[in-house]
Amino acid sequence: MLISGITRTRIQTVAVVACVCVAAIVMTPIAVSYLHPVYPAAAEQRGRSFVGVWRYLKMYSGKFPLSQHGSKVLSRWSWRFVLARENCHMPTDATEVDWSKSWDSARGNAVESCGSWIFGRKDGSAIIVAVGGAGTAYDLGLENLTRFPRDLILFVETCRVDHNWMEPKDCDLQDFDNGVNCASSEYGGGFHVCFADGAVWYLRSDVPPQLLRKFLTQDTAALMDRDSILAPFAI
Fold first, then answer.
1. Which among 74, 87, 162 has a CA at the least distance from the CA of 125?
2. For strand 128-132 and strand 171-172, is the pairing parallel, antiparallel, or unpaired?
3. Which of 158, 96, 89 is closest to 130 using CA atoms?
4. pTM reported for the whole predicted model
């Protein structure tokens, strides 16, 4: 049977409308997530971990400085391990650590697991790193919270490292100077940062590295206002 011109036109119109509707259904969530990013549910535990680490820092009273300068310990162990060791409830037979040995001497030991739940992924790779360099919180000593301006970033979330959370490796300020942002996450399009006053923000991944860099050193962070400068990138 031949289809009349009018019927053919109606079929084509219906087909076009159907295609438009399907495209709208598919594209709307993508557009909404781009225009109004949503905090990924899977990242909530990560955010709580960041708050927990800040509380560890606030309570820290260990004999080892949490700075890369003047610390023989941090040449062999990360600040994360030093902090976790004091704040985790480790078995009695695992409380003694030979600080003269390398970080990997504790692999497979109960010491390794005491902080992996907050500082590392299931494979042990670090998810929380400090940013080293002149004037950073790591350079000045992460435990000196009361001396820092509130908008100084203490540490950031990252998924771009594959080293163990106990290994003494972190990010470098020079990376940000070169336009490279080591802050990242496998959850959604953002990452967590923790400020000196304990505030934890989830920032979009498109925040310019040069802008974030201004919050990474004490002198520049003292001149910044995160509520006006970083708020547009906060989720």
1. 162
2. parallel
3. 158
4. 0.81
The terminus-to-terminus CA distance of the chain in angstroms comes to 59
Q: Is the dihedral of CA 82, 86, 91, 95 positive or negative?
A: positive
Q: To 10 degrees, what angle do helices 44-59 and 110-119 make? A: 120
pLDDT tens digits, one per residue of 105-126? 887 777 777 788 889 988 889 9
Count of beta carbons in the 10 Å neighbourhood of residue 90: 17
Using only C-alpha atoms, what is the Rg of the chain? 24
Asked whether 113 and 165 are in contact (CB, 8 A), the reply is no
In the sheet that 128-132 helps form, which strands lie side by side, from edge to edge?
171-172, 128-132, 153-157, 190-195, 200-204
- Cβ neighbours of residue 76 under 8 Å, at least 6 residues apart? 99, 100, 101, 102, 103, 168
HEC readout, 96-128: CCCCCCCHHHHCCCHHHHHHHHHHECCCCEECE
The DSSP code for 2 is: P
pLDDT per residue as tens digits for the range 212-230? 999 999 999 999 999 999 9
C-alpha 201/C-alpha 194 separation (Å) is 7
